[in-house]
Amino acid sequence: TSPLPPPPDGADFVVVANRLPVDRDDSGPEPVWTTSPGGLVTALAPVMQANDGAWIGWAGIPDEDIEPFDIDGMHLVPLTLSSDEVVSYYEGFSNATLWPLYHDVIVAPEFHRTWWESYLRVNTRFAEAAAKTAAAGATVWVHDYQLQLVPALVRALRPDVSIGFFNHIPFPPAELFAQLPWRSQILNGLLGADLIGFQRPADAANFRRAARVHAGFATKSSQIRVPENPESGTGAHIAEARAFPISVDTPTLDAAARDPETIARAQEIRSDLGDPETLILGVDRLDYTKGISHRLKAYGELLADGSIDPEQVTLVQIATPSRERIEQYQQIRTDVELAAGRINGEHSDLGTTAIHYFHHSFPREEMTALYLAADILLVTALRDGMNLVAKEYVACRTGEDGVLVLSEFAGAADHMNQAVLVNPHDIDGLKANILRAIEMEPAERRRRMRALRRRLIRDDVQSWSRSFLDTLEALDDDKDLRRWE
Ligand code: ADP
Ligand code: G6P
Fold it and tell me: Is the distance from the beta carbon of residue 392 to the nearest atom of ligand 1 less than 6 Å?
């Protein structure tokens, strides 16, 4: 690869992510733009709105060439994926190889050479788009597991830019990562970045260990010495790999939860549900990593053994459609819907519904009203990079009441230890903790929620991006000074 000249009208700040913040929906008479699913978009949209720059990503439908456009204060540069690439790069390598491998192999990852080739091809296209969009000396910030080859590819094309990478999902222990036939290519791809950010210190440590064990690079505290790579055309440099736990837009959520319309809507939701004494909420993408089946098992047993009365307690479970053509996602949908149907069949009555189950997305305002209405939020992920739903709930609890039941296996547990922490694999423990949350005294609820909110007000998504980008900038300033001591 030979380096490209910077474009004359390039952007100083370029975000590169598989998804744009909006999806194009062509199912109606007129195309409409809807918010894309998932935590990456939730976190990055407010960052992008506060910064000038361009966001390169896919608009969620195959085979559509869409011109760059502006929406909600963001400049978006759509990148086209063919139908074949959606199958092999997105549903295949990204979500049936990497996603399960990086989430503790909850389901078995599949390794196919044709998927890898597609991943390499699409990553190359993203890197070329970034190289054509970034101004001289710009900051290019690449996001998530779908684009791990992009940092080194951008470095080869544009040695003048400063490159950051942030992984929104866990990074697996070196022993699991070892399964990946293309592990050294992935490591070399990521190590093209100057700064590689992870959700938890444990993820960063796993990555540095993988760089030592599987790429043979020397590491010292958070630094990794990356030698020159004549094959990709990149020079020697020192990369930094550290944790930067992501967060939510706390001030915006807090303000939305104080809006009288939201408050009225929250009351209406409770009364529509028959004014239960305790309203429990679950909000997840319908993904096998979220532990929805474990949660329903515990809840069903509590109803069956008479520990909770469906006239007093009700569960609202929102399961957002996700990656619906992948077999494992079809399986989890069947499992969850069967379990919810069974529990309702046994424990609901005319006028009392044990579980209210929804398989669709909701507008932001409705989500806020639901968080405000719920006495308890259940997060039972078997493995999760961070889990922004947990943070959104806390940000919306302006009355400083409500209980967060949080899995130890979500990144959020690292710094939300005032939550009721649970091991979702331990069904008896999960049941006991759900009961504990239902019965918790108001004073204890308040003490815990107040502490959780204090932390979230300080550590919001803007402070996350500032901290990452300031670190990247400082590394760039020191580029020539930094030596391996
Ligand atoms: P993930 O990124 O794995 O989906 P997170 O919990 O980090 O998990 O982020 C999920 C994001 O998606 C949150 O911002 C949440 O509010 C949003 N979300 C989840 N379900 C829905 C839904 N049904 N309607 C609207 N937004 C949703
Ligand atoms: C998680 C991933 C994101 C992804 C999102 C939604 O948050 O970290 O990269 O965008 O899930 O998944 P999807 O496959 O619909 O983009």
Answer: yes
Cβ(384) – ligand 2 distance below 6 Å: no
| Six-digit token string for 186 | 């992935």
Contact in structure between 475 and 482 (CB atoms under 8 Å): yes
Atom 16 of ligand 1: nearest residue by CA position: 389
| 400: helix, strand or coil | coil
CA 392 to centroid of ligand 1, rounded, Å? 9
In Å, what is the CA distance from 357 to each residue of 269, 291, 350, 392? 14, 15, 16, 20
Contact 386 CB / ligand 1 (< 6 Å): yes
Q: What is the pLDDT of residue 144?
A: 98
Q: pLDDT tens across 202-242, in order?
A: 999 999 999 999 999 999 999 999 999 988 888 999 999 99
> Using a CB cutoff of 8 Å and minimum separation of 24, what contacts does 2-9 make?
2/233, 3/156, 3/157, 3/158, 3/159, 3/233, 4/131, 4/132, 4/157, 4/158, 6/134, 6/135, 6/136, 6/137, 6/138, 6/158, 6/160, 7/132, 7/133, 7/134, 7/135, 9/135
The residue whose CA has the least distance to atom 8 of ligand 2 is 168
Q: What per-residue confidence (pLDDT) applies to 476?
A: 83
* Residue found by looking up tokens 């922490």 in the block: 421
Beta bridge partners of 316: 281, 356
Instruction: Answer whether residue 485 shows pLDDT above 60.
Output: no
pLDDT per residue as tens digits for the range 293-345: 999 999 999 999 999 999 999 999 999 999 999 999 999 999 999 999 999 99
What tokens does 408 get?
């130890």
Quick one: which atom of ligand 1 is closest to the CA of 386?
7
State ipTM: 0.99
Calculate how far, in angstroms, residue 130's C-alpha sits from the geometric centre of ligand 2. 20
Is 120 exposed, middle or buried (CB count within 10 Å of its CB: 0-12, 13-18, 19+)? middle
Separation of CA 35 and ligand 1 centre (Å)? 11
Q: What pTM, to 2 d.p., does this model score?
A: 0.97
Tokens 């809840």 belong to residue? 299
User: Token digits for 437?
Assistant: 């949350």
Rounded distance from Cα 91 to ligand 1 centre (Å): 19
pLDDT, tens only, 141-169: 999 999 999 999 999 999 999 999 999 99
Q: How confident is the model at residue 481 (pLDDT cuts 50, 70, 90)?
A: low
DSSP element (H, E) containing 465: helix 461-477
